[in-house]
Amino acid sequence: MLRKHHYRYGTFLLLLITTACTAVSISPSRMPSALHPQGPGAARLAELWWVMLAFGTLAYLIVLALLFAALLRRRRATNLTEPEESHGGDTGRSWVIWGGIVLPLVLIGIAFGYSIYTQAVIDNQTEERTFKIEIFGRRWWWEVRYLDHGFSTANEIHIPVGVPVEIWLQSADVIHSFWVPEIHGKMDLVPTRINKITVQADNPGTYRGECAEFCGLQHAHMGFMVVAESEADFNAWVSTQQQPAPEPTDEAAVAGQQVFFSAGCVYCHQIRGLNDKAVDRSAVDLGPDLTHISSRLTIASGSLTNNRGNLAGWISDSQHIKPGNQMPNIYLNSDDLQNLLAYLETLR
Ligand code: CUA
Protein backbone atom coordinates (compact mmCIF):
# COMPACT_ATOMS: atom_id res chain seq x y z
CA MET A 1 0.00 0.00 0.00
CA LEU A 2 2.73 2.38 1.06
CA ARG A 3 4.74 1.67 -2.08
CA LYS A 4 1.78 2.30 -4.34
CA HIS A 5 1.30 5.67 -2.66
CA HIS A 6 4.95 6.46 -3.17
CA TYR A 7 4.61 5.82 -6.89
CA ARG A 8 1.58 8.03 -7.14
CA TYR A 9 3.19 10.88 -5.20
CA GLY A 10 6.41 10.47 -7.20
CA THR A 11 4.60 10.80 -10.53
CA PHE A 12 2.58 13.74 -9.27
CA LEU A 13 5.70 15.50 -8.00
CA LEU A 14 7.49 14.93 -11.30
CA LEU A 15 4.58 16.42 -13.24
CA LEU A 16 4.49 19.38 -10.87
CA ILE A 17 8.22 20.04 -11.27
CA THR A 18 8.03 19.75 -15.07
CA THR A 19 5.09 22.16 -15.22
CA ALA A 20 6.79 24.61 -12.84
CA CYS A 21 10.04 24.56 -14.87
CA THR A 22 8.17 25.22 -18.10
CA ALA A 23 6.16 28.04 -16.51
CA VAL A 24 9.30 29.70 -15.16
CA SER A 25 11.13 29.44 -18.46
CA ILE A 26 8.40 31.02 -20.54
CA SER A 27 7.15 33.70 -18.16
CA PRO A 28 8.22 37.20 -19.22
CA SER A 29 10.99 38.50 -17.02
CA ARG A 30 13.52 41.29 -16.90
CA MET A 31 16.33 38.77 -16.73
CA PRO A 32 17.81 37.98 -20.14
CA SER A 33 16.33 34.80 -21.53
CA ALA A 34 17.57 32.69 -24.40
CA LEU A 35 13.90 32.06 -25.15
CA HIS A 36 13.31 35.70 -26.09
CA PRO A 37 15.74 35.86 -29.01
CA GLN A 38 16.62 39.27 -30.47
CA GLY A 39 19.10 38.07 -33.08
CA PRO A 40 19.36 35.32 -35.69
CA GLY A 41 21.88 33.23 -33.68
CA ALA A 42 19.73 33.24 -30.55
CA ALA A 43 16.61 32.56 -32.64
CA ARG A 44 18.17 29.38 -34.03
CA LEU A 45 19.13 28.24 -30.54
CA ALA A 46 15.67 28.99 -29.14
CA GLU A 47 14.19 26.93 -31.97
CA LEU A 48 16.52 24.06 -31.08
CA TRP A 49 15.46 24.37 -27.45
CA TRP A 50 11.78 24.04 -28.35
CA VAL A 51 12.45 21.08 -30.67
CA MET A 52 14.36 19.33 -27.88
CA LEU A 53 11.59 20.10 -25.40
CA ALA A 54 9.02 18.63 -27.82
CA PHE A 55 11.04 15.44 -28.29
CA GLY A 56 11.75 15.17 -24.58
CA THR A 57 8.07 15.62 -23.77
CA LEU A 58 7.09 13.03 -26.38
CA ALA A 59 9.53 10.47 -24.99
CA TYR A 60 8.40 11.26 -21.44
CA LEU A 61 4.73 10.79 -22.32
CA ILE A 62 5.43 7.51 -24.12
CA VAL A 63 7.35 6.20 -21.12
CA LEU A 64 4.59 7.31 -18.74
CA ALA A 65 1.93 5.65 -20.90
CA LEU A 66 3.90 2.40 -21.00
CA LEU A 67 4.46 2.57 -17.26
CA PHE A 68 0.73 2.93 -16.59
CA ALA A 69 -0.05 0.19 -19.10
CA ALA A 70 2.36 -2.13 -17.30
CA LEU A 71 0.91 -1.24 -13.89
CA LEU A 72 -2.67 -1.90 -15.04
CA ARG A 73 -1.70 -5.14 -16.69
CA ARG A 74 0.11 -6.34 -13.60
CA ARG A 75 -2.85 -5.51 -11.36
CA ARG A 76 -5.20 -7.38 -13.69
CA ALA A 77 -2.85 -10.32 -13.70
CA THR A 78 -2.64 -10.52 -9.89
CA ASN A 79 -6.36 -10.04 -9.48
CA LEU A 80 -7.48 -12.69 -11.92
CA THR A 81 -4.83 -15.19 -12.83
CA GLU A 82 -1.16 -15.89 -12.40
CA PRO A 83 0.82 -14.44 -15.29
CA GLU A 84 1.83 -17.20 -17.69
CA GLU A 85 5.45 -18.21 -17.71
CA SER A 86 5.77 -17.94 -21.47
CA HIS A 87 4.22 -14.49 -21.52
CA GLY A 88 7.50 -12.65 -21.09
CA GLY A 89 9.22 -14.50 -23.94
CA ASP A 90 9.27 -13.10 -27.51
CA THR A 91 6.91 -10.19 -26.80
CA GLY A 92 9.01 -9.12 -23.83
CA ARG A 93 12.18 -9.21 -25.85
CA SER A 94 10.74 -7.19 -28.72
CA TRP A 95 9.51 -4.58 -26.21
CA VAL A 96 13.05 -4.26 -24.92
CA ILE A 97 14.51 -4.02 -28.44
CA TRP A 98 11.98 -1.57 -29.90
CA GLY A 99 11.06 0.41 -26.82
CA GLY A 100 14.37 0.26 -24.99
CA ILE A 101 16.89 0.54 -27.84
CA VAL A 102 15.37 1.57 -31.18
CA LEU A 103 12.98 4.27 -29.96
CA PRO A 104 15.52 6.11 -27.76
CA LEU A 105 18.13 5.85 -30.52
CA VAL A 106 15.77 7.39 -33.07
CA LEU A 107 14.62 10.20 -30.74
CA ILE A 108 18.11 11.02 -29.48
CA GLY A 109 19.47 10.69 -33.03
CA ILE A 110 17.00 13.26 -34.39
CA ALA A 111 17.68 15.69 -31.53
CA PHE A 112 21.44 15.22 -31.94
CA GLY A 113 21.29 15.69 -35.71
CA TYR A 114 19.20 18.81 -35.32
CA SER A 115 21.65 20.32 -32.82
CA ILE A 116 24.60 19.61 -35.17
CA TYR A 117 22.64 21.27 -37.98
CA THR A 118 21.88 24.32 -35.81
CA GLN A 119 25.54 24.62 -34.82
CA ALA A 120 26.61 24.45 -38.46
CA VAL A 121 24.11 27.13 -39.52
CA ILE A 122 25.24 29.48 -36.73
CA ASP A 123 28.93 28.92 -37.47
CA ASN A 124 28.68 29.38 -41.22
CA GLN A 125 26.79 32.61 -41.60
CA THR A 126 27.28 33.72 -45.18
CA GLU A 127 26.60 37.41 -44.65
CA GLU A 128 29.57 39.77 -44.85
CA ARG A 129 30.91 40.75 -41.46
CA THR A 130 31.10 44.49 -41.22
CA PHE A 131 33.77 44.99 -38.60
CA LYS A 132 35.65 43.25 -35.88
CA ILE A 133 35.73 43.61 -32.11
CA GLU A 134 38.40 41.99 -29.98
CA ILE A 135 37.36 40.99 -26.48
CA PHE A 136 39.64 39.89 -23.65
CA GLY A 137 38.16 38.11 -20.67
CA ARG A 138 39.90 39.17 -17.48
CA ARG A 139 39.30 38.42 -13.82
CA TRP A 140 36.66 39.84 -13.60
CA TRP A 141 35.79 42.20 -16.38
CA TRP A 142 35.77 42.50 -20.16
CA GLU A 143 38.30 44.45 -22.16
CA VAL A 144 36.70 45.50 -25.45
CA ARG A 145 38.87 46.64 -28.34
CA TYR A 146 37.37 48.11 -31.48
CA LEU A 147 40.25 47.19 -33.76
CA ASP A 148 38.82 48.77 -36.90
CA HIS A 149 37.98 52.00 -35.08
CA GLY A 150 41.09 52.35 -32.97
CA PHE A 151 39.87 52.56 -29.38
CA SER A 152 39.31 50.42 -26.30
CA THR A 153 36.55 50.36 -23.77
CA ALA A 154 35.30 48.00 -21.07
CA ASN A 155 32.23 45.97 -20.18
CA GLU A 156 30.06 47.63 -22.80
CA ILE A 157 29.75 46.67 -26.45
CA HIS A 158 27.89 48.82 -28.93
CA ILE A 159 26.75 47.34 -32.23
CA PRO A 160 24.56 48.63 -35.02
CA VAL A 161 21.22 46.85 -35.45
CA GLY A 162 20.77 44.35 -38.27
CA VAL A 163 24.46 44.05 -39.05
CA PRO A 164 26.70 41.02 -38.46
CA VAL A 165 29.69 41.85 -36.28
CA GLU A 166 32.65 39.56 -35.82
CA ILE A 167 33.94 39.10 -32.28
CA TRP A 168 37.36 37.67 -31.49
CA LEU A 169 37.39 36.18 -28.03
CA GLN A 170 40.57 35.77 -26.02
CA SER A 171 41.47 35.34 -22.39
CA ALA A 172 44.16 37.12 -20.43
CA ASP A 173 44.09 34.60 -17.57
CA VAL A 174 41.66 31.68 -17.12
CA ILE A 175 38.79 30.27 -19.17
CA HIS A 176 35.74 32.53 -19.36
CA SER A 177 32.63 32.23 -21.50
CA PHE A 178 30.96 35.01 -23.45
CA TRP A 179 27.17 34.80 -23.35
CA VAL A 180 24.47 37.26 -24.36
CA PRO A 181 21.39 35.02 -24.12
CA GLU A 182 19.13 37.19 -26.27
CA ILE A 183 21.69 37.63 -29.06
CA HIS A 184 23.80 34.50 -29.40
CA GLY A 185 24.93 31.24 -27.81
CA LYS A 186 27.91 30.82 -25.51
CA MET A 187 31.52 30.80 -26.63
CA ASP A 188 34.52 30.14 -24.39
CA LEU A 189 37.50 32.45 -24.07
CA VAL A 190 40.49 30.15 -23.80
CA PRO A 191 44.03 31.31 -22.95
CA THR A 192 46.45 31.15 -25.92
CA ARG A 193 43.78 30.87 -28.58
CA ILE A 194 41.26 33.02 -30.44
CA ASN A 195 37.64 31.90 -30.75
CA LYS A 196 35.52 33.78 -33.25
CA ILE A 197 31.80 34.30 -33.34
CA THR A 198 29.56 36.52 -35.45
CA VAL A 199 26.74 38.23 -33.61
CA GLN A 200 23.82 40.24 -34.84
CA ALA A 201 20.97 42.02 -33.09
CA ASP A 202 17.69 42.46 -34.93
CA ASN A 203 16.13 45.02 -32.61
CA PRO A 204 17.54 48.04 -30.83
CA GLY A 205 17.94 47.58 -27.09
CA THR A 206 20.30 46.97 -24.22
CA TYR A 207 21.06 43.32 -23.69
CA ARG A 208 22.80 41.96 -20.67
CA GLY A 209 25.64 39.48 -21.06
CA GLU A 210 27.28 37.23 -18.50
CA CYS A 211 30.38 35.16 -18.06
CA ALA A 212 29.09 31.61 -18.37
CA GLU A 213 32.15 29.66 -17.22
CA PHE A 214 33.21 29.55 -13.60
CA CYS A 215 36.37 31.65 -13.45
CA GLY A 216 36.97 32.26 -9.76
CA LEU A 217 35.70 34.28 -6.83
CA GLN A 218 33.85 37.00 -8.78
CA HIS A 219 32.58 34.92 -11.69
CA ALA A 220 29.02 35.93 -10.82
CA HIS A 221 29.98 39.63 -11.06
CA MET A 222 31.40 39.46 -14.56
CA GLY A 223 28.54 40.95 -16.52
CA PHE A 224 28.51 43.32 -19.46
CA MET A 225 26.10 45.19 -21.67
CA VAL A 226 25.46 44.96 -25.37
CA VAL A 227 23.86 48.12 -26.72
CA ALA A 228 22.29 47.59 -30.14
CA GLU A 229 21.42 50.88 -31.78
CA SER A 230 20.72 52.52 -35.12
CA GLU A 231 23.59 53.06 -37.54
CA ALA A 232 23.54 56.81 -36.83
CA ASP A 233 23.61 56.35 -33.04
CA PHE A 234 26.37 53.79 -33.36
CA ASN A 235 28.50 56.09 -35.51
CA ALA A 236 27.98 58.94 -33.05
CA TRP A 237 29.05 56.66 -30.20
CA VAL A 238 32.16 55.55 -32.11
CA SER A 239 33.27 59.08 -32.88
CA THR A 240 32.86 60.04 -29.21
CA GLN A 241 34.84 57.02 -28.05
CA GLN A 242 37.63 57.79 -30.52
CA GLN A 243 38.22 61.21 -28.96
CA PRO A 244 40.93 61.48 -26.33
CA ALA A 245 39.81 62.72 -22.92
CA PRO A 246 39.31 66.49 -22.75
CA GLU A 247 41.50 68.54 -20.43
CA PRO A 248 39.43 69.46 -17.36
CA THR A 249 38.59 73.16 -16.93
CA ASP A 250 36.54 73.06 -13.73
CA GLU A 251 38.62 73.69 -10.61
CA ALA A 252 37.54 70.51 -8.80
CA ALA A 253 38.14 68.41 -11.91
CA VAL A 254 41.62 69.88 -12.38
CA ALA A 255 42.45 68.93 -8.80
CA GLY A 256 40.86 65.51 -9.38
CA GLN A 257 43.17 64.88 -12.30
CA GLN A 258 46.10 65.38 -9.93
CA VAL A 259 44.54 62.87 -7.51
CA PHE A 260 44.32 60.40 -10.40
CA PHE A 261 48.12 60.60 -10.58
CA SER A 262 48.96 60.86 -6.89
CA ALA A 263 46.62 58.08 -5.72
CA GLY A 264 48.17 55.70 -8.24
CA CYS A 265 45.08 55.14 -10.43
CA VAL A 266 47.18 56.01 -13.47
CA TYR A 267 49.34 52.91 -13.11
CA CYS A 268 46.49 50.53 -13.94
CA HIS A 269 43.97 52.65 -15.81
CA GLN A 270 44.53 54.33 -19.11
CA ILE A 271 42.91 57.64 -19.98
CA ARG A 272 43.78 58.39 -23.58
CA GLY A 273 45.20 61.86 -23.96
CA LEU A 274 46.40 62.00 -20.37
CA ASN A 275 50.15 61.61 -20.41
CA ASP A 276 49.86 58.11 -21.91
CA LYS A 277 53.44 57.40 -22.74
CA ALA A 278 54.99 58.56 -19.49
CA VAL A 279 53.49 55.63 -17.58
CA ASP A 280 54.69 52.08 -17.93
CA ARG A 281 51.74 49.77 -17.29
CA SER A 282 53.44 46.63 -18.58
CA ALA A 283 54.24 45.36 -15.11
CA VAL A 284 50.71 45.48 -13.73
CA ASP A 285 47.49 43.68 -14.39
CA LEU A 286 45.51 46.28 -16.28
CA GLY A 287 42.27 47.79 -15.16
CA PRO A 288 39.61 49.08 -17.55
CA ASP A 289 40.34 51.99 -19.89
CA LEU A 290 38.64 55.02 -18.33
CA THR A 291 38.80 57.48 -21.24
CA HIS A 292 35.00 57.65 -21.47
CA ILE A 293 33.94 55.99 -18.22
CA SER A 294 31.09 58.44 -17.61
CA SER A 295 29.43 57.39 -20.85
CA ARG A 296 29.00 53.81 -19.63
CA LEU A 297 25.83 52.36 -18.18
CA THR A 298 27.49 50.35 -15.43
CA ILE A 299 30.70 50.07 -13.44
CA ALA A 300 32.44 47.05 -11.88
CA SER A 301 31.55 44.86 -14.87
CA GLY A 302 27.80 45.23 -14.83
CA SER A 303 27.60 45.06 -11.03
CA LEU A 304 26.59 48.67 -10.27
CA THR A 305 24.72 51.42 -12.06
CA ASN A 306 27.15 54.10 -13.12
CA ASN A 307 26.48 57.10 -10.88
CA ARG A 308 28.52 59.29 -8.59
CA GLY A 309 27.54 57.51 -5.38
CA ASN A 310 28.31 54.05 -6.67
CA LEU A 311 31.59 55.23 -8.14
CA ALA A 312 32.57 56.76 -4.79
CA GLY A 313 31.71 53.49 -3.04
CA TRP A 314 33.65 51.49 -5.61
CA ILE A 315 36.79 53.62 -5.37
CA SER A 316 36.74 53.65 -1.55
CA ASP A 317 35.83 50.04 -0.93
CA SER A 318 35.88 47.94 -4.07
CA GLN A 319 37.00 44.95 -2.02
CA HIS A 320 33.71 45.03 -0.14
CA ILE A 321 31.69 45.09 -3.38
CA LYS A 322 33.75 42.52 -5.29
CA PRO A 323 36.09 40.76 -2.83
CA GLY A 324 39.24 39.49 -4.49
CA ASN A 325 39.15 41.83 -7.48
CA GLN A 326 42.42 43.39 -8.63
CA MET A 327 41.57 46.92 -7.50
CA PRO A 328 42.75 47.76 -3.99
CA ASN A 329 40.67 50.03 -1.77
CA ILE A 330 41.82 53.61 -2.32
CA TYR A 331 41.87 55.58 0.91
CA LEU A 332 41.27 59.22 -0.01
CA ASN A 333 40.20 62.11 2.13
CA SER A 334 36.81 63.54 1.34
CA ASP A 335 38.09 66.50 -0.75
CA ASP A 336 40.35 64.31 -2.86
CA LEU A 337 37.55 61.79 -3.43
CA GLN A 338 35.06 64.49 -4.48
CA ASN A 339 37.63 66.05 -6.81
CA LEU A 340 38.48 62.71 -8.34
CA LEU A 341 34.77 62.03 -8.92
CA ALA A 342 34.41 65.47 -10.51
CA TYR A 343 37.27 64.64 -12.86
CA LEU A 344 35.88 61.19 -13.77
CA GLU A 345 32.54 62.84 -14.54
CA THR A 346 34.22 64.90 -17.25
CA LEU A 347 35.20 61.70 -19.07
CA ARG A 348 32.07 61.40 -21.19
CU1 CUA B 1 34.71 34.95 -16.21
CU2 CUA B 1 33.26 33.41 -15.18
Structure, described:
- By secondary structure, this protein is α+β, with helices and mostly antiparallel strands.
- It is about 45% helix and about 15% strand.
- The strands form three sheets. Strands 3-2-1-5-8 form a five-stranded mixed beta sheet, with no helix packed on it.
- Helix 6 (about 310-320) packs across helix 7.
- The structure holds dinuclear copper ion.
- Dinuclear copper ion (CUA) binds near residues 137, 211 and 213.
Secondary-structure map with pairings?
Blueprint (H helix, E strand, L loop, with lengths): L1 H25 L13 H41 L9 H34 L8 E7 L2 E6 L4 E4 L1 E5 L4 E7 L4 E4 L7 E3 L5 E5 L5 E7 L11 E7 L1 H12 L8 H12 L35 E2 L4 E2 L2 H14 L12 H12 L3
Parallel strand pairs: 1-5, 4-10
Antiparallel strand pairs: 1-2, 2-3, 5-8, 6-7, 6-9, 9-10, 11-12
Helix pairs in contact: 2-3, 5-7, 6-7
Bound molecules: dinuclear copper ion.
Beta-strand fraction estimate: 15-25%
Q: What are the bound molecules? A: dinuclear copper ion
**Treating each run of at least 4 consecutive H or I residues as one helix, how many helices?**
7
Decide which structural class fits the backbone.
Answer: alpha+beta
- Total strand count, please? 12
The strand order across the widest sheet is 3-2-1-5-8
Poorly predicted parts: 21-29
Average pLDDT works out at: 87
The helicity comes to 40-55%
Shape: elongated
- What string gives the helices and strands in order? HHHEEEEEEEEEEHHEEHH
* Major sheet characteristics: 5 strands, mixed
Terminal residue distance: 72 Å
